[in-house]
Amino acid sequence: MMKTSFINGVFQGQSGNVLRNINPSDTNDVIEEFARVGREEADLAISAAKASAVDWGQSNPQQRFDVLDFIGSEILSRKQELGELLSREEGKTLTEGVGEVTRAGYLFKFFAGEALRIPGQRLDSVRAGATVDITREPVGVIGIITPWNFPIAIPAWKIAPALCYGNSVVFKPAELVPSSAWALTEIISRSGLPDGVFNMLIGPGSEVGDAIIKNGSVDAISFTGSARTGASIAQQCAARMAKVQLEMGGKNPLIVLDDANLELAVDIAVQGSFYSTGQRCTASSRVIVTEGIYQDFAQLFAERTRALRVGHALDPKTQIGPVIDSKQLEQDLSYIRLGQDEGASLIAGGDLVNLKTPGYFLQPALFSDVDNSMRICQEEVFGPVVTLSRVTCYEAALAQAEDTQFGLSAGIVTSSLKHAEHYKRHASAGMVMVNMPTAGVDYHVPFGGTKASSFGPREQGSYAVDFYTKVKTAYQLPM
Ligand code: NAD
Q1: CA angle (165 as vertex; 205, 175 as ends), nearest 5
Q2: Model confidence pLDDT, tens digit, residues 404-418
Q3: Does the domain at residues 252-434 carry the CATH identifier 1.10.287.3510?
Q4: Does residue 227 register a pLDDT over 80?
Q5: For the packed helices 394-402 and 417-426, what is the interaxial angle rounded to 10 degrees?
Q6: CA-to-CA separations, 390 to 31, 102, 255, 435, in angstroms, rounded
Q7: Which of 193, 375, 380, 440 is the most exposed place for a label (fewest CB within 10 A)?
Q8: Which residues of 374-395 are buried (b: 16+ CB within 10 A; e: fewer)?
Q9: Closest by CA position to 268, among listed 279, 281, 289, 254
Q10: For the chain, domain boundaries
Q11: How far, in Å, CA of 251 to CA of 286, rounded?
Q12: How does 170-199 read in b/e, with b if 16+ C-beta sit within 10 Å?
């Protein structure tokens, strides 16, 4: 049966054509079919969200806790089934899929707790006898627009705080991964939320996304996706003075110093660079190595890259699942050709892999002999394509790591406390990892970047309150 959007408490909306959700590990496998909606349904959902916003904004913390705790508990109790669905539609391995679902469950649990401790302040006024209350209030209607690479975790880390702080939601998932979004919506539909507080729209970004951005009843937009879409959203939100939060691309450096443990450094590089098929905004895509350890590191990293087992996402032996679709695969291959044209040496991988099922399988690619000004070192590929460069010392590594328009995550592998501390202080990225992969973050602390990677207040942890609330200052003299 064809699945639909969720508008004003009802699964409905059939105006557009059919969206077929194709498994990237086996393109003969049509996972589910969905009825696309358009602008008209987007406007209906926004009206429903607006109509419900005042009452929901005044709901008590227990009600919000119960809703969010219900959603989190159900996600966690069904993590295997939902993880399998996620891996089937997105292509990350089953372990990664179940891991992502688990994280989504805990995100809802975390914000269930946050609903009980929404911060405020009472201060004495500087005027005699008066007091000042500083309170956090809901923003109103939040438009949530998400990418395909984390089909449940990214929606969770936006929807959970939006509801926690008393906002209504209009959520538009990426068209490549509607099944996880629908499954999450189905759980939310049974959580006890009043009709209209949560809406989900299946449709194209250029139509449904655009309608959400342009509608004056949407008070704030939280977007994760490409820098190009993000820039256009920022401009449109500025023009109508809507609040906006953007999480975009990365070109994350991983520095390996001479004093690093070689095995540990290679493990971190392989994990951070290629797991989840390199399709993580926080993936290490530039590995920068000092010359004393370079030769041994490069040899082992290349061996490990060649040995990575690429396969069907649901095959337990698979380490690297398929690329999401033919368009992304063509982008990865074009960057591999570009790297060769620019004069870099392809020292491992880069070939298509033929398996029993037709899918978008690519052996992760490793380039050496790169110059950081090359396009493969500066532009986000968003696939399993990584560059390796040799530098003389820590200072040169830091300078090269910083030579990028992005600033999401940055890593270093070292046994030197001095360099670790210096790097944490001087890397301009929003997240710094010492002796850990650049990708892989906790659910209870802030997430986000600097420069072209992020714009607006941080996501997640207790810092999410800044985006999902507005601040009121109330003065009072005694009666
Ligand atoms: P995308 O920008 O193509 O799409 C993201 C979302 O925006 C989708 O839901 C899409 O339908 C919608 N959209 C597209 N055009 C729109 C428009 N004109 N108006 C409104 N909405 C529109 O990005 P993608 O290809 O889905 O995702 C990959 C990108 O996401 C990469 O650049 C990656 O780095 C980034 N990403 C960033 C983070 C982060 O937290 N920094 C996390 C994951 C992914």
Answers
A1: 15
A2: 999 999 999 999 999
A3: no
A4: yes
A5: 20
A6: 45, 38, 10, 19
A7: 375
A8: bebbebbbbbbbbbbbbbeebe
A9: 254
A10: 5-248+453-476, 252-434
A11: 7
A12: bbbbbbbbbbbbbbbbebbbebebeebbbb
pLDDT digits over 383-406, tens only? 999 999 999 999 999 999 999 999
Q: Could you tell me which residues come within 8 angstroms of residue 433 by beta carbon, excluding any fewer than 6 positions away?
A: 409, 410, 411, 412
Residues 6+ apart with CB under 8 A from 94: 83, 84, 87, 313, 314, 316
pLDDT in tens, 168-223: 999 999 999 999 999 999 999 999 999 999 999 999 999 999 999 999 999 999 99
Q: Can you tell me the distance from the alpha carbon of 290 to that of 303, in angstroms, rounded to the nearest whole number?
A: 19
> Do 349 and 365 contact (CB within 8 A), yes or no?
yes
Residue 16 pLDDT > 80, yes or no? Answer: no
What is the rounded distance in angstroms from the CA atom of residue 62 to the CA atom of residue 6?
25
Sole residue written with tokens 């790591």? 401
| Nearest Cα residue to atom 10 of ligand 1 | 205
3-state class (DSSP) for residue 199: strand
> Are the C-beta atoms of residues 284 and 439 closer than 8 Å to each other?
yes
Alpha carbons 214 and 205: distance in angstroms, whole number? 12
Strands (E), 264-405: 284-290, 345-348, 365-368, 385-391
Residues in the chain: 479
Choose one of 96, 100, 148, 226 to mutate for the ligand 1 pocket test, by most ligand atoms within 8 angstroms of C-beta: 226
Tokens coding 252: 């994350």
pLDDT at 248 over 90: yes
pLDDT of residue 15: 72
Q: Decide if 358 contacts 30 (C-beta within 8 A).
A: no
Question: Which residue is listed with tokens 């069907």?
Answer: 312
Q: What is the CA radius of gyration of the chain?
A: 23
pLDDT band for 1, please (50, 70, 90 cuts).
confident
Active site amino acids: 247, 281
Q: Please return the burial class of 353, using the count of CB atoms within 10 Å of its CB with bins 0-12, 13-18 and 19+.
A: middle
Ligand 1 pocket, CB under 6 A: 145-150, 172, 174-175, 205-206, 209-210, 213, 224-226, 229, 232, 247-250, 281, 380, 382, 408, 453
Looking at residue 275, what DSSP letter applies? G
Which pairing describes strands 220-224 and 252-256: parallel, antiparallel, or unpaired? unpaired
Q: Six-digit token pair at 39?
A: 């602008």
Measured by CA distance, the residue closest to atom 15 of ligand 1 is 205
Alpha carbons 208 and 137: distance in angstroms, whole number: 28
